Fold these 2 entries.
Entry 1:
Amino acid sequence: MNKDQVKGTAEKVKGKANEIIGQVTGNTKQEVKGDIQQAAGQARKSLGDAKEAIKKS
């Protein structure tokens, strides 16, 4: 596991937390921020996955 995979996963978790807090409090702005964080985290994790795949081949 490389740093991009770890940081991407952490960003996804933070995004999910923001999304849930936004839903519970009715704060649409925070909910959208959470969605964006999750997407960014997934992109970074995917980059890390690709790096690992290249390293192993």
Entry 2:
Amino acid sequence: MTTFDDRERGFEAKFAHDEDIAFRIAARRNRLLGQWAAARMKLTPEETDAYAKAVVQADFEEAGDEDVIRKLLGDLLAAGVEVDDATIRSAIQEQTIEARRQLMESK
């Protein structure tokens, strides 16, 4: 029974670690998305920082990326920036790769 318990604890630890990494990547990605959108809206550096934090916060509204997409799409269109859903989804993919790269480099 000890070997089984050890394996179970190992799997649980790996799952917790993987979830932590996924959360960090998503948070970093959302910050990068906020900076990406802020650049298109021509926000000041202070506004960019606040906006990036707001995008990170928006991700806690519901599971998945739809809450972030809605926020970015609404804010960009309200600022007069021509953008569509596909452009934002492409940016999400690009920023996910960049967030993963940054996280791996920081370790």
